[in-house]
Amino acid sequence: MEVAEANPEEWAVGFQDECWWSRVALPTLSSFSEEKKPDRMIQRSVAKDDPEPKAISCYGLYLPRPLGDMWLRFVDGRPVSSITTQFLSWCCEELEGLGKKTLLLIWDNASWHISKEVKRWLGKHHREVKESGEGVRIVSCLLPKQSPWLNAIEPKWVHGKRRVVEFDGLLGSYELADRVCGAFGCPHHEHLSIPQEVA
């Protein structure tokens, strides 16, 4: 951290995590309203024939200094290693555009972070950056197991869920993703997905 903070022009510190955004679950929320006219949140349910998922997954990278940004990419499906590498590749491209050379990546021990596929991708990525002299190097720092309070992105998720709650009606998955991106002030990029193999 000291090295990154001493070289803010070349280094970025990023806290990475994934989050599920539910169309039906309600966050813990307090609000003020006129006397005897409280807002009531109603637990919704999804119809059996609703083709949309009950929840959507999202990868996030929180860059506290100097950017103070949240970068989000939603996923068609669930977090897996091949989606993780797509997200990391995208983050490196974005950071390179900002003139950064190294990303200090702080994340947890999720299986899709420490898998052989992700480790191989990181090794290959480092070799390519070293050989070409271009791109963004990733210094991976794993948090201790079962310590979400050490990840600075966690409170962002909690507050974000409170900002996007729908009091009246049920949001569609795309509408929910759009609202989440709006809450964090970031663009709603194309969703990450695993390409379908052609038989």
Automatic annotation (TrEMBL):
Residues annotated as signal peptide: none
Residue stretches making up the Tc1-like transposase DDE domain: 83-164
Gene Ontology terms for molecular function: nucleic acid binding
Family matches, as InterPro entries: RNaseH_sf, Tc1-like_DDE_dom
Name recorded for this polypeptide: Tc1-like transposase DDE domain-containing protein
Organism per entry: uncultured Rubrobacteraceae bacterium
